[in-house]
Specification:
- By secondary structure, the chain is mostly helical.
- The protein has a domain of about 110 residues.
- The protein is about 65% helix and about 0% strand.
- It contains 19 helices and no strands.
- Helix 5 crosses helix 7 and helix 11 packs antiparallel against helix 12.
- The longest helix has 15 residues.
- The protein is elongated and about 90 Å long.
- The model has no long low-confidence stretch (mean pLDDT about 90).
- This is Fungal protein.
- It is found in: Nucleus.
- Keywords: Nucleus.
- InterPro entries: ELYS/MEL-28_NucAsmblyFactor, ELYS_dom.
- It holds the Pfam family ELYS.
């Protein structure tokens, strides 16, 4: 594919034809490919956007470009596409971030502030800069159009606080079980009670309840475990909790189960549990029961 005169002028106005200015050296290309592999679906946000151009089936074959000719081909695909001018400008703005020329370009063409922020957010997430991405997404009038991928990206990289803020400020619809699951389990890391209350309004709440228990126990969250034993639970929730707590012979699991049995008046079961386990046999809770003459 060759550039005509008009396209050539536009191309050199955007980029540079000097070899020393070409930013996509081997290290940069390898880094971008590595970042792609770190995405949940093996696709950068650039790839998702680029695939909206009808003729593009494998966006990863075009970005990052390996040579000036590859860059020209990428430019031609965007320039010749049926997408509107503003979307084309957003593609160029993203690419020019690799060149360190995006701000100059955006100011020259008066790219709307909300579109700058949106692309900045996608670029930041592509480079796994999570807090920076969130700052861009929370700017006024920015409407991220891939909320599912954003949520999953935050969650898969354990950026639970950023995910919670994104949901609470952007308010994307949590209309699938997966989105509800991600938000509930992220919320559990910061407020177990809030996560429990949200769980009640979700699809498959019992599945989420089991997930909540594992999050709290596996993170050794003793404060939340104290809350668990005093919650007003349904019979099904109790059965799931006892099953989970009985699944491991680890101190927090055993302590929480013992406390729950005592809290719910199942003293005989509590004593049986404590006497059959060396760890609990030395537990201050069991010692207190013995001092009261309960065994």
């Amino acid at each position: 594919m060759e550039l005509d005169e008009t396209q050539f002028e536009k191309f050199i106005g955007l980029f540079s034809i000097r070899p020393e200015d070409f930013p996509y050296n081997q290290d940069v290309r390898l880094n971008i490919k590595s970042l792609r592999q770190n995405q949940i679906d093996k696709q950068l946000f650039f790839d998702v956007l680029f695939s909206f151009i009808d003729i593009i089936k494998e966006p990863e074959a075009y970005y990052p470009p390996s040579s000036m000719n590859d860059l020209k081909n990428l430019f031609l695909i965007i320039d010749s596409s049926n997408i509107d001018e503003l979307k084309q400008q957003c593609f160029y703005y993203y690419l020019l971030k690799d060149w360190g020329k995006s701000e100059t370009y955006a100011n020259q063409i008066l790219l709307p502030f909300n579109f700058r922020q949106l692309i900045d957010g996608y670029y930041a997430l592509d480079h796994l800069n999570f807090e920076e991405a969130l700052d861009h997404f929370l700017q006024p009038d920015v409407l991220p159009n891939f909320p599912d991928k954003i949520l999953e990206t935050f969650y898969r990289h354990d950026k639970f606080f950023q995910m919670i803020r994104f949901v609470q400020f952007v308010n994307p619809p949590l209309d699938t079980f997966r989105k509800q699951e991600c938000y509930t389990l992220a919320l559990a890391r910061h407020s177990f009670l809030s996560a429990f209350n949200f769980m009640k309004k979700c699809m498959q709440p019992l599945v989420l309840w089991e997930g909540l228990l594992h999050v709290v126990l596996d993170s050794n969250d003793k404060d939340s475990c104290k809350l668990i034993v005093s919650l007003p639970l349904t019979e099904e929730e109790v059965d799931i909790m006892v099953s989970v707590l009985s699944s491991k012979k680890e101190p927090l699991y055993l302590d929480t189960l013992l406390a729950f049995l005592i809290q719910s008046g199942r003293i005989h079961e509590a004593c049986q549990l404590a006497s059959s386990n060396l760890y609990l046999d030395k537990s201050p809770i069991f010692a207190a029961l013995q001092r009261l003459g309960v065994s």
